[in-house]
């Protein structure tokens, strides 16, 4: 969600329980605009909130000229003071893969990756003196996973130039209501995987300037997205059932779209058995 349109965007996703108090909204919008100035970002977005036991993490993203390039992520505990998060790496994701349960809400909290719970709830240590993992590292890994799995944009909102960089499409005027109700009208805004496996015949009808991302229609498990029309059909809302708390909105025939995550940072691993 862009900082400039944050109050309006939060009203559109309020039906998903992604609201903030008026005090938090005011503090958040003012601090995000200051972030853009201080860090010299071209655009700042409010990514969402991960709820911890002791308190929440508020997450923001800073974007550069290449919209598909690396993003700077920051977190705050009070919507005023922000701390820059390190870039996500494969090592971070591997280290935190076995961590389960709620976030504590304390970035300095340390997890013991060798600690496991047996059937009698006893602590077993595979090796003593192992490296501890700070919750800040787990936060980086979870944000990256959520973004790659369910961070989406409408088809045509971005264009890929012949030289490689991705920019916002100035000619994008929104999806029609008919198109907005289809999963194949939305793309994962991350490095494509399924697109690379398609044959030349399957790519024949694709526009390389806008169809350079993976569509939601091929997501696994099938049925992991919920599409609903709200406000008398003037608003399309997509909700992820895999990462509960991710809400995407789009106002058809306008440039208004965005997504927000408000949840505990836990993946719904039981989804295949619920469908």
UniProtKB/TrEMBL annotation:
<dbReference type="InterPro" id="IPR006802">
    <property type="entry name" value="Radial_spoke"/>
</dbReference>
<dbReference type="GO" id="GO:0001534">
    <property type="term" value="C:radial spoke"/>
</dbReference>
<keyword id="KW-0966">Cell projection</keyword>
<keyword id="KW-0963">Cytoplasm</keyword>
<dbReference type="GO" id="GO:0060091">
    <property type="term" value="C:kinocilium"/>
</dbReference>
<dbReference type="InterPro" id="IPR055316">
    <property type="entry name" value="RSP9"/>
</dbReference>
<keyword id="KW-0206">Cytoskeleton</keyword>
<keyword id="KW-0970">Cilium biogenesis/degradation</keyword>
<dbReference type="GO" id="GO:0035082">
    <property type="term" value="P:axoneme assembly"/>
</dbReference>
<dbReference type="GO" id="GO:0044458">
    <property type="term" value="P:motile cilium assembly"/>
</dbReference>
<keyword id="KW-0282">Flagellum</keyword>
<protein>
    <recommendedName>
        <fullName>Radial spoke head protein 9 homolog</fullName>
    </recommendedName>
</protein>
<keyword id="KW-0969">Cilium</keyword>
<dbReference type="GO" id="GO:0060294">
    <property type="term" value="P:cilium movement involved in cell motility"/>
</dbReference>
<comment type="similarity">
    <text>Belongs to the flagellar radial spoke RSP9 family.</text>
</comment>
<dbReference type="Pfam" id="PF04712">
    <property type="entry name" value="Radial_spoke"/>
</dbReference>
